[in-house]
Every structure is written in structure tokens, then in C-alpha cells.
Amino acid sequence: MAGQTNKRPVLNLPRQAAVRILNGVMTEHKQLSELTQSDDFQALAPEDRARSQRLATHTLRHVGRADRALRPHLAKLPAVEVLNILRLGLVEIAGLGAPAHAVVNDLVSICAASNQTRPYKGLINAVLRKAVADVTGKWDKSPVQMLPKWLRNPLREAYGNGTIMAIETAHMRGAPVDLTVTGDLATWASTLGGTPLANGSLRLGEIGQISALEGFAEGKWWVQDAAAAWPAAALAVTPGETVLDVCAAPGGKTMQMAAQGGVLTALDISASRMERVAENLARTQLAAELVVANILEWQDPRQFDAVLLDAPCSATGTIRRHPDLPFAKDGTGISELIELQTQMLNATVGRVKPGGKLVFCTCSLIPDEGEVQAENFLRRHKDFTVDTSLPQGMDPAWRTEEGGFRLRPDYWSELGGMDGFYLIRMNRRG
Ligand SMILES: C[S@@+](CC[C@H](N)C(=O)[O-])C[C@H]1O[C@@H](n2cnc3c(N)ncnc32)[C@H](O)[C@@H]1O
């Protein structure tokens, strides 16, 4: 109508998208990596996407704290979509120091924009203001967020209470960016301003856009957590050795072993993920034969000097980077993964030449996907023995009973931690 102004408020797009991500994780049990591929999310400007992802990630790391602060102000728990708006607001204001007035007003508008949450806009306003007043100055002293029972119970049994709390603290802190560099570590440390780590990785401090950093376009380094860089280092490939990388995509370990001079065959079941390996190899100007196949059915008769099996697993070692995982998953499917890992080990064993070497690893914290799997393998395959050498920078205290290494997120805490991983190197008798 002429003269009428549109009074609808302009919503903060990153905040609105962050609320949608939280809803997708908590109600549809989708992972952040999937939700951020949606058309809606991809339509945002790159800086809005980055901001939204940061907000959602930070909220997921602090849901426990937020819920503790909100509970006294809620007579009964509202629908999760409403709760997520409250959680995000509290984390942004109390945890990230955003101005309360602007955030509350905007979240009230976001609440009003959906039919489902519209009736609760008054509640958002009132509860957020009270909860923020309660936690101001006390947020960092609030207890750390606990893992959900499906994961906490088996981990507590494996590691004990104190360790679980240390792991949970590490999860809340998030993860720095680590690089694997192909040239001189000290030179890259001064060029990019990072800290060289004992295993040869480079840890970066504050970074903007990764792809804008010096050396990215030329493929001089790639992003890889320090813990994830140890399995290939443990395989200790020497120039000219033939190497089979089973479960290779997206190719972090393939690149490492190709850079060491190995003659690489990279195998993965997923054609689309294998495209990422090809892109990564092209950028880093490294070479590997790429095979898209199921290792359980691969008919190729070749044997290799060195074989690495980085088997699919619960990925519970990567929660620092993927705080959505404890909410998106519920523990179902882990026994199937354990069975698949056993089958993969059995399918891989014959690929190792007599006198050759094998590394098995998973990015899991659950011993059934690591220590137990390796122990059973060594019992089944008497022609394999544990390699007793210590990979560069590895702490001997991390050696496990059966001869592998248990890496945990609470290790190197003064440096910013590491992902959880299990790895073992074994040698086949000649
Ligand atoms: C943990 S990821 C591998 C990460 C990779 N090694 C790296 O360092 O970048 C596990 C991979 O196993 C692959 N995979 C799952 N089942 C497989 C199978 N039966 N045969 C071959 N690859 C499989 C998945 O497609 C996935 O890419």
C-alpha cells in the first residue's frame, strides 16, 4: 500500500543460519559438514558462512554450560528449536562477549520469523536477559561440558574419571590449525609465524583464510592435525618403496608418504572423495596411482613394501574439531564399524610383502577400534610382530600394552592439544 513502510526487521543472517545448523544437528542428527553443504547455507556470503559456522561450533562446545545457566529460568523445557536460540544467545553474549542488547533483539526477531517459535519471543527476551545477568563474570568458571552417556560411559571405563574430564576440557578448547610442510620446518615456521611441533608438524596461531596463506597455492603444505600425521610417519617410507594407502581419501597421509619418496597406490571406495585426493595431489605436485575400489573385494594381486590402513571409525578422536559429533550421533553403528575394521585388516594383510611393514590406525578414542583390534590382529596373524621403534616426537609413555600408541586430546595441552588417534606399526616376517 502506498506510504506504508516494511517494518520487518533485517535478520542477522549468520546468526539465523547458526540456529538452523544447531536445529539440524540436534533434531535431524545431521553433521555440520552435511548441513553446511545445503543450498541455503552456500547462498550466504563467504564471510557470513565462516561467522555462522564459528557461532554454531562455539555453541555446540558450550551447550552444557548454557543449559546449566538457562535451567533455573525455565519452568519447563521448551522445544529444542527455542532452546537452541537461547543457547546460542547465551554463548555469544557470555562466552564470546557480544553486546547483549543487540544479540537479544536479533534473536527475538529470529524467533518471531518462524511459525514454530514465534509464540516464544517473549520468553527468549526475558530468559536470556536473566540468564546473562546470572552468568556474567562466572562463565569461564562453570563446569566443562560432559560427553553424552553413549560415549562417556565406555571412555570412562577405558581411561578413568580424571582422564575423561581432561578430554572434555580439551574438547571445549577447540583445535588449532596444524600443517604438514614439505620443505624446511623452521623456514615455514618463520614465514607463517607458527610453532614447530616435536613430530615435525607446524602449529599456526591466529589465521584468517587458509587458502590465502603463503605456500598454499603452490602446494608446499597441507592442513593435517599433528596426531593424524603420526601414522604415516610411523610407517617410515623410504624413497622408492611401494606403498598401498588403504582408505586414502581425502589424501592427507597419501601426500605425506608420496612426499617421503614412496611409490604410492591410494585406494578408496568413494569416487567423490577420491576426487579430493586427485585435487590435493595436483596442488602439491605429488604423484600416486588412484584406485576406486572396496578393499574387501579388490582383486589386484600386487604386494607392497609398506601398507597403511586408516580404517573408517567412530571418529570420536576428532570432537575438538567436530563438536557436533556427540549430538549428531548416538553410538549406534559402532559395532558394525568394529566388524568392518576387522574385515579390512584381514583383507589388507596379504597385501604386505614378506619383510614388509603395516600401520593400522583410527581416529577413535574407543579401545575396541584401536588397542583391542590390534591385539586380536596380532593373535590371528603370527607372521606379524610389533615394531618397537619410536616415531619422531612420540612420547614413550603413550605406548600401549600390545605395542601401539594411544594419542589423546588432552596430551600436549599446554600447546593446544591433539586429536585422539590410535596407531600401531607391525612388521611381516621375511
Ligand atoms: C578415516 S577416512 C581416511 C582418511 C585418509 N586416510 C586421510 O588421511 O586423509 C576413511 C576412508 O575409508 C573409506 N572407506 C570406507 N570403506 C571402505 C572400503 N570398504 N574400501 C575402501 N575404502 C573404504 C572412506 O571412503 C573414507 O574415505
TrEMBL record:
Transmembrane segments: none
GO molecular function: RNA binding; RNA methyltransferase activity
Annotated binding of S-adenosyl-L-methionine, by residue: 247-253, 268, 310
PROSITE patterns cross-referenced by the UniProt entry: NOL1_NOP2_SUN, SAM_MT_RSMB_NOP
Pfam families in the record: Methyltr_RsmB-F, NusB
Domain of life assignment: Bacteria
Keyword annotations: Methyltransferase, RNA-binding, S-adenosyl-L-methionine, Transferase
CDD domains named among the record's database cross-references: AdoMet_MTases
Residues annotated as domain SAM-dependent MTase RsmB/NOP-type: 139-429
Alphabetical list of Gene3D superfamilies matching this protein: NusB-like, Vaccinia Virus protein VP39
Family the UniProt entry places it in: Belongs to the class I-like SAM-binding methyltransferase superfamily. RsmB/NOP family.
Protein name (Swiss-Prot/TrEMBL): Ribosomal RNA small subunit methyltransferase B
Record organism: Planktomarina temperata RCA23
Phylogenetic classification of the source organism: Bacteria, Pseudomonadati, Pseudomonadota, Alphaproteobacteria, Rhodobacterales
